[in-house]
TrEMBL record:
Lineage: Bacteria, Pseudomonadati, Bacteroidota, Cytophagia, Cytophagales
Organism in which the protein naturally occurs: Aquirufa echingensis
Subunit comment: Homodimer.
GO molecular function, one term: diaminopimelate decarboxylase activity
Name the UniProt record assigns to this protein: Diaminopimelate decarboxylase
UniProt binding sites for substrate: R303, Y307, E335, Y369
Length: 410
């Protein structure tokens, strides 16, 4: 899995030219994943809605837009980003969770399609707009799926969506206010590999959908697992795409109308495009283990600490594998921040080509939920971001300065 360059530019050159810590994205990889997704859903009308929470850099959004990918957002700010990136409101779906109704009104005012996930919000939507505005309804299908508990969103106890058992209440509100429900939505969770889980969730939504007469869209969410580790190849997209397309075609036939299928992947489109680069500040030979301390921490890439997630780690400065050692890769934050976790979510040591102070350590699969989940903890600056496209690397977000930290403070 270790690769030492992006479009022939060595990672070490990128680190030298742009400094560290640094997020680097490979535009070709993103295009490749878009194409693979398109080629996996055959014989149906497919729209891809990029789950922008995974990466909201404007340059990434523009790249998505240029490749025919629309957008799914969760906040007014993400919606604004989309508009700034050149999207029209109608290409953006607003799929929030637990927001104030004023945010729904704001999204409607920008022409976005809203996705409602609560009965009280559905009622307010009916009272406010009657049949004048379209909407989707997010259903919770009571399906278990997702890499860990924190990223499972469709099981009975999840806060997301309206329970599939509340169909009567939904239909009563739709009828009462003549609400213009153009689509139904469900998102099972993140890191799902198994075609059966997607099929189960889709078929629950299809069964639910027959009572809604004027549907144009079924949105089956995202969650396609990416290969975080060499042992885990991730989702077989062609296979899952075919399962979902077949099920969708059968549904359309029974429903009596050609509908449009939306999917909203985040990780699948951007995770593998991203590599996170940091420099080795210290190699600490402790009697018990050897630590590699890098110039970053949970403030920049929180996935390992938040979910016990596995990220592939390698020494970008040393391609000689004849001398390797076990290292625990840690951060510089005043917490036990560790980047190396095993598949079971426990801190571990990684076998790396011998690390010296000053070496560049690379973490793969950092394109999704990397920068967007970064914080200023310990008053550290956010990393810079670089996009490599057409063999050229350019900064798409500058490194922060002290001014950024002080802005807005008294
Ligand atoms: N659609 C909805 C409604 C979602 O809530 C999400 C993710 C997606 C699509 C995209 O899921 P994806 O294809 O990226 O798996 N921060 C966590 C993942 C949280 C996902 C939140 N919702 C992580 O880094 O693993």
């Amino acid at each position: 899995m270790a690769y030492y360059s992006i479009q022939n530019i060595p990672l070490t050159d990128l680190a030298k030219d742009f400094g560290t810590p640094l997020y680097v994205y490979d535009a070709d990889k993103i295009r490749e994943k878009i194409l693979l997704l398109q080629q996996s859903f055959l014989g149906i009308n497919l729209t891809i809605k990029f789950a922008a929470k995974s990466n909201t850099n404007l340059s990434i959004l523009r790249l998505m837009r240029a490749n025919g990918v629309e957008m799914d957002v969760v906040s007014p700010q993400e919606l604004e980003m989309g508009l700034i990136a050149g999207y029209e409101g109608g290409q953006i779906t607003f799929t929030p969770s637990g927001v104030h109704f004023s945010e729904i009104e704001y999204a409607v005012s920008k022409g976005a399609i809203v996705n409602l996930d609560n009965l009280s919000v559905l009622e307010k939507f009916g009272q406010t707009y009657g049949s004048s505005q379209p909407c989707l309804i997010r259903i919770k299908p009571h399906v278990f799926g997702g890499g860990n508990e924190k990223i499972m969103t469709a099981h009975p106890e999840s806060k997301f969506g309206i329970s599939i058992h509340q169909k009567a209440e939904i239909l009563a509100l739709v009828d009462k206010y003549n609400i213009n429900v153009i689509g139904l939505h469900q998102h099972t969770g993140s890191d799902i590999k198994d075609g059966k889980t997607f099929e189960q969730a889709a078929s629950a939504l299809f069964d639910f959908a027959y009572d809604f007469k004027d549907l144009q869209i079924i949105d089956l969410g995202g969650g396609f697992k990416v290969p975080y580790s060499p042992e885990d190849p991730g989702v077989n997209m062609k296979e899952v795409g075919q399962i979902m397309s077949d099920a969708f075609r059968a549904f359309c036939q029974k429903y009596g109308r050609e509908l449009r299928l939306w999917v909203e992947p985040g990780k699948f489109l951007v995770s593998e495009s991203g590599t996170f680069l940091a420099e080795t500040n210290v190699v600490k030979h402790d009697p018990v283990k050897t630590f590699v301390g890098i110039n970053s921490g949970l403030n920049h890439l929180i996935r390992p600490m938040m979910y016990g997630s596995y990220h592939y780690i390698f020494n970008a400065s040393n391609q000689d594998s004849s001398k390797q050692a076990e290292y625990r890769v840690t951060g510089y934050i005043c917490e036990t921040d560790t980047f190396s976790f095993d598949y079971a979510g426990k801190q571990n040591e990684r076998l790396l080509n011998e690390v010296k102070e000053g070496d560049i350590i690379a973490l793969a699969n950092a394109g999704a939920y990397g920068f967007t989940m970064a914080s200023h903890y310990n008053s550290r600056f956010l990393p810079a971001e670089v996009l490599v496209d057409g063999g050229v690397a350019r900064v798409i977000r500058k490194r922060e300065t002290m001014e950024d930290l002080l802005r807005n403070q008294e």
